[in-house]
């Protein structure tokens, strides 16, 4: 059973029971309809309460069922809500913890709603690229008013029940046991007739046309490539302009269209991808974790400071260790400045500011950090320095402490072997700025213990990061792939593009920044340093020399006032540079290349398919657990456009045979060896399969 039926005195109680969040899947809907029928056929029953078992009233329609025949199989959510709304006995929703999407739509079909304080109320469908499709856009404006309902539907943001207590959405908002309160309420209203129905409420908003037009303009400007937000406005508009049943029909049509869009599929993929990333097949969910009550960070530089802020933001005390007082003071001052800026912008209260700043302390002594539950090293990217630090940590840290490295390129297994406890060592690769970026690559060493992995995965949630596990390899998942993308970007310059043309092509696809603007922001010298190492370690790999020539001109990017683009003092806007463009043209001539006009399609394909091909190797080698993990890395760490679902999902959408065909075409050009399809990609394409 996925809904239970009980009679309590003369009140029937239907309890949705479909863990974890009582998603309204087919079986649950069917069981709830049966419960309604039983209650309606039982003369002893005078009223019906609908509630949810466990940790939710209901999280809404079962998203896992979307695009499967079960989603529309009868009884549909509409049918269930109709049965509830047409009941001749009063139906009361007893709402607790989570009441979202279809769950809220079901509640709005009831005659009365009793909620416990703190319940999260939302119509979050827009975040999945759809709109509320079971009457939400028609009923919510009737209980909350046009403006509040539209804001909730277009933003999808949850609101705590007590903040809605003064509206018609709830009849009571209670402390304590909501079922008890709902039963008492049901007893009171059992004989009240006529039964109130949300559909009968009139929306009173005289100047609705002007407001709706204003909303359309605002929403259009912020919706980007997503069609759903504007459709939400249209559906809500129908609540004012159409009769109730026509509005429901119109909402349904929009919903059915949106479910089929790639944008919605991509958002649903990201929803499940984020949750899947925290699971490892060989680390069971009940793996015990180590308590993390205190953190130490080694190094108060760019990364150390940002890393420390994450923990302070989550209420966990952090000590930062530096070699010299001066570096420590500088690092702590930067952190303080960051918090002050947030305070000035009004995004932090004074109380929270004091609390967070107070949780971060500095030290020069390893002995003082010895009792920390986890220590994260963020010192210079140099194996010799890492060796010194890890040997010292091994000497001083208490037994059971987790020893983590923020290295972006070095071998975590080697680092682990500097200690006598390699099972406690793990990579935690934060992305810059570490207090802002969502991604945390969790690098699993050969000997990393399972409870260490489980602890760090849990910790990443606590600090609101998307933790994705990567095996050990050069660059881990993200940077190993980006190297192939950067190589193609460089080759495109040699063959005929300008940096601006390349950037614009991928920015048009939805990237926040193209590779050259990104290089200027991050600092072109970082890649230069890495390439110099690679020229020695892997001489067989070819790179375009344009980026080296750029660095030889001292054009490291925004920090030096010049990079691929020119910059004006105090202005981050990138201006095309004639010096750079001349340098590129000269370089092509030196290589004997006749420059040609390159289409945006070729630019996008070469950059993205280079990522995809490397990702296929990463997947096949087991460096990534699943394709969606790779997508999560790119969506949360590299600005890959969300509406495409990440590189692997994008490749699936394009069709893997098409990806391979394009690669075969590019294999005939310069550096054709880069385009040999990875065996996994070739195999899936041949079998007509997808990555995800
Ligand atoms: N359907 C199916 N599974 C769902 C689900 C849903 N609506 N909502 C959550 N889940 C699953 C998650 O996939 C996850 O599964 P897992 O344990 O196998 O990974 C599990 O429930 C727990 O989810 P979270 O880790 O997110 O748990 P939290 O406690 O942090 O959050 C939540 C719970 C607030 C309900 C959050 O999961 C959430 O926001 N869910 C999405 C809610 C939503 O978008 N509802 C609208 C659905 S569409 C709809 O109703 C259409 C209708 O208008 C016709
Ligand atoms: P940074 O140069 O800004 O900071 C390093 C800090 O470590 C300095 O303050 C230095 O004084 C301190 N330090 C050096 N040796 C030390 C020691 N033995 N004990 C204590 N402190 C010591 O470097 P950044 O950029 O913060 O990088 C740190 C680590 O994070 C590196 O491993 C880097 O590869 C990695 N990383 C950097 C990213 C970035 O964008 N900067 C992104 C992701 C990872």
Automatic annotation (TrEMBL):
Gene3D superfamilies: 1.10.1040.50, 2-enoyl-CoA Hydratase, Chain A, domain 1, NAD(P)-binding Rossmann-like Domain. GO terms for molecular function: (3S)-3-hydroxyacyl-CoA dehydrogenase (NAD+) activity; enoyl-CoA hydratase activity; isomerase activity; NAD+ binding. Its main location: other. Residues 475-567, 603-689 form the 3-hydroxyacyl-CoA dehydrogenase C-terminal domain. It is found in: Peroxisome. Coiled coil: none annotated. Keywords: Fatty acid metabolism, Isomerase, Lipid degradation, Lipid metabolism, Lyase, Multifunctional enzyme, NAD, Oxidoreductase, Peroxisome. CDD domains: crotonase-like (cd06558). InterPro entries: 3-OHacyl-CoA_DH_NAD-bd, 3HC_DH_C, 6-PGluconate_DH-like_C_sf, ClpP/crotonase-like_dom_sf, Enoyl-CoA_hydra/iso, NAD(P)-bd_dom_sf. Pathway: Lipid metabolism; fatty acid beta-oxidation. The keyword Lipid metabolism applies. GO terms for biological process: fatty acid beta-oxidation. Residues 294-470 form the 3-hydroxyacyl-CoA dehydrogenase NAD binding domain. Pfam families: 3HCDH (PF00725), 3HCDH_N (PF02737), ECH_1 (PF00378). The keyword Oxidoreductase applies. It catalyses: a (3S)-3-hydroxyacyl-CoA + NAD(+) = a 3-oxoacyl-CoA + NADH + H(+). This is Short chain enoyl-CoA hydratase /3-hydroxyacyl-CoA dehydrogenase. It comes from Undibacterium pigrum.
């Amino acid at each position: 059973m996925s809904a239970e039926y009980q009679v309590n005195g003369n009140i029937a109680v239907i309890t949705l029971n479909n863990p974890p969040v009582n998603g309204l899947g087919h079986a649950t809907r069917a069981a709830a309809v049966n419960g309604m029928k039983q209650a309606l056929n039982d003369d002893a029953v005078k009223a019906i309460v609908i509630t949810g078992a466990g940790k939710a009233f209901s999280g809404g329609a079962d998203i896992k069922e979307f695009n499967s025949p079960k989603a529309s199989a009868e009884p549909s959510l509409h049918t269930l809500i109709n049965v509830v709304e047409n009941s001749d006995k009063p139906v009361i929703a007893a709402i607790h913890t989570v009441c979202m999407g279809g769950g809220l739509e079901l509640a709005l079909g009831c005659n009365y709603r009793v909620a416990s304080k703190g319940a999260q109320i939302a119509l979050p469908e827009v975040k999945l690229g759809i709109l509320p499709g079971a009457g939400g856009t028609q009923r919510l404006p009737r209980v909350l008013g046009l403006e509040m309902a539209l804001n909730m539907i277009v933003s999808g943001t949850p609101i705590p029940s007590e903040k809605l207590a003064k509206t018609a959405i709830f009849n009571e908002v209670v402390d304590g046991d909501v079922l008890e309160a709902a039963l008492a309420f049901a007893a009171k209203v059992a004989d009240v007739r006529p039964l109130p129905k949300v559909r009968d409420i009139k929306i009173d908003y005289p100047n609705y046309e002007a407001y709706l037009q204003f909303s359309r303009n605002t929403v259009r400007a912020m919706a980007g490539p997503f069609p759903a937000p504007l459709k939400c406005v249209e559906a809500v508009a129908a609540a004012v302009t159409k009769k109730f049943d026509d509005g429901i029909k119109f909402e349904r049509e929009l919903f059915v269209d949106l479910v089929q869009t790639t944008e919605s599929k991509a958002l649903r993929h990201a929803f499940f991808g984020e949750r899947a990333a925290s699971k490892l097949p060989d680390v069971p969910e009940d793996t015990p974790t180590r308590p993390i009550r205190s953190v130490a960070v080694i190094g108060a530089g760019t990364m150390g400071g940002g890393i420390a802020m994450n923990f302070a933001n989550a209420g966990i005390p952090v000590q930062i260790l530096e070699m010299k007082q001066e570096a420590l003071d500088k690092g702590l001052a930067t952190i303080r400045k960051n918090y002050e800026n947030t305070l000035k912008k009004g995004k932090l209260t004074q109380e929270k500011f004091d609390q967070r700043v107070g949780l971060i302390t500095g030290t020069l002594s390893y002995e003082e950090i010895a009792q920390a539950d986890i220590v994260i090293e963020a010192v210079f990217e140099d194996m010799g320095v890492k060796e010194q630090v890890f040997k010292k940590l091994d000497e001083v840290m208490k037994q059971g402490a987790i020893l983590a490295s923020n290295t972006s390129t070095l071998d975590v297994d080697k680092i682990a072997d500097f200690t006598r406890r390699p099972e406690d060592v793990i990579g935690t690769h934060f992305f810059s700025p570490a207090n802002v970026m969502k991604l945390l690559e969790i690098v699993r060493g050969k000997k990393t213990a399972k409870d260490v992995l489980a602890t760090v995965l849990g910790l990443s949630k606590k600090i609101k990061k998307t933790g994705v596990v990567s095996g050990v390899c050069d660059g881990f998942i993200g940077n190993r792939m980006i190297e192939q993308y950067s190589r193609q970007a460089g080759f495109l310059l040699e063959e005929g593009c300008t940096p601006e043309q390349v950037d614009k092509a991928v920015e048009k696809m939805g990237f926040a920044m193209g590779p050259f603007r990104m290089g200027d922001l991050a600092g072109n010298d970082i890649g230069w340093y890495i390439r110099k190492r690679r020229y020695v370690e892997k001489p067989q790999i070819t790179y375009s020399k344009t980026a080296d020539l750029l660095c030889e001109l001292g054009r490291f990017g925004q920090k030096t006032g010049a990079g691929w683009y020119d910059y004006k003092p105090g202005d981050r806007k990138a201006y095309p540079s004639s010096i750079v463009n001349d340098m590129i043209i000269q370089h092509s001539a030196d290589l004997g290349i006749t420059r040609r006009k390159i289409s945006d399609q070729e630019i996008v394909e070469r950059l993205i398919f280079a990522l995809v091909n490397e990702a296929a190797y990463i997947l096949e080698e087991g460096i990534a657990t699943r394709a969606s993990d790779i997508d999560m890395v790119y969506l949360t760490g590299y600005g890959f456009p969300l509406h495409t679902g990440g590189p692997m999902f994008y490749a699936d959408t394009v069709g893997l045979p098409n990806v391979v065909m394009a690669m075969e075409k590019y294999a005939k050009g310069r550096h054709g060896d880069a385009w040999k399809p990875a065996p996994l990609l070739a195999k899936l394409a041949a079998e007509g399969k997808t990555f995800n």
